[in-house]
Amino acid sequence: MQKIPTVHFEAASTLAVVVSSNEPLLFLSDDLKVIAASASFCRAFDIDPGTVCGQSLSEIGNGEWAMPKLASLLKATASGSANIEAYEIDFQRPNQKTRQLVVNARTLDDGDIDHIRLLLAITDVTDMRAEARLKDDLVRDNAILLQEVQHRVANSLQIIASVLMQSARRVQSEEARGHLHNAHHRVMSIAALQRQLSTSNGGKVELRAYFTQLCQSLGASMIADPDRLSIQVTVDDSAVDADVSVRLGLVVTELVINALKHAFPDERPGAIVIDYQSSGDDWTLTVTDDGIGMAAGSEAPKAGLGTGIVEALVKTLDGDIQLSDAGPGTAVTISHRESAGSRDISTAA
């Protein structure tokens, strides 16, 4: 058995702590010779405890601790010019898999003013790093799968919309044809929502691009003469969670469809404007048209499916609905404020 280097009497307590530690520890002299090693260190790295003390760090085991960069950092720590904090190394031994180790080192004042002592702590993070990589891979795979699903759903919705349009051309009943057209418009708008979500990477959705694409889809399917009717988007730089964007998009869809159906009879020209502004957690969504305005009394159309959809969606958004005369036209304002409640909307769809 090699002789343990001589240490000051007061270092005995440090030696006792190191040897009995449950964590892999090395007690080193300033020239990187091993003064003591914990039993857990010897077990972790398959080293005979009787061969450790008195050897240089680079000599223990089969020389796998001969790492020039680690030795340089330890010497710099002993001189006071550096510190080793959570320094990660790849530990390699012949015919064994590489292990990831995190080392920390600091000098110890053990009462011997003539020599600097170092305490080196080693943590094996191989399994932890493997688990982290596995989780990252799963998150990435799930994101890719979700995007693929959303893309396929969007494609399927477009096929359904095409079938609805073909059915509308074949039916004789004007009422049935109208219902099929309405269903077609709604399906196409939801398909547009899905396409936008498929590019959001599961994170925040920028509403300006989102509403612009949505309104382009609605205009293409519902506006025969773009020179007569237009849909404009004025949205700030807001970005919201994907699920919130879906609900907002469906609200915009229903309100735009409502305006296109009722605000511009007899080939009346005009425009619909979608505006969204936010400040912190508060936001306001306004859909305004410059059409014929709100009907009153017995001339007012009955609330339809679109109204129920909007009311239900706004409730989930903790929003408040206000219907007002835009002079000319109509403005529907949906706002979210702290402790705000929802009110009924009387527009027809």
CA-to-CA gap between the ends? 92 Å
CATH class of the largest domain: Alpha Beta
Using only CA atoms, what is the Rg?
Answer: 36 Å
Low-confidence stretches: 1-7, 297-303, 340-349
Helical content (DSSP H or I, runs of 4+): 40-55%
CATH topology of the largest domain: Heat Shock Protein 90
Q: In one word, what is the shape?
A: elongated
Structural class: alpha+beta
Protein name: histidine kinase
EC number: 2.7.13.3
Keywords: ATP-binding, Kinase, Nucleotide-binding, Phosphoprotein, Transferase
Domain Histidine kinase: 247-340
Task: Describe what this molecule looks like in 3D.
- The protein is of the alpha+beta class and 349 residues long.
- The protein folds into 3 domains: 116 residues, PAS domain (Beta-Lactamase); 78 residues; 145 residues, Heat Shock Protein 90 (2-Layer Sandwich).
- The protein is 42% helix and 23% strand.
- It contains 8 helices and 12 strands.
- It has a 5-stranded antiparallel β-sheet with strand order 2-1-5-4-3, with helices on both faces.
- A hairpin with a 4-residue loop joins strand 11 and strand 12.
- The longest helix has 45 residues.
- The protein starts with 11 loop residues before the first helix and ends in a 13-residue tail after the last strand.
- Keywords: ATP-binding, Kinase, Nucleotide-binding, Phosphoprotein, Transferase.
- It comes from Rhizobium changzhiense.
- It catalyses: ATP + protein L-histidine = ADP + protein N-phospho-L-histidine.
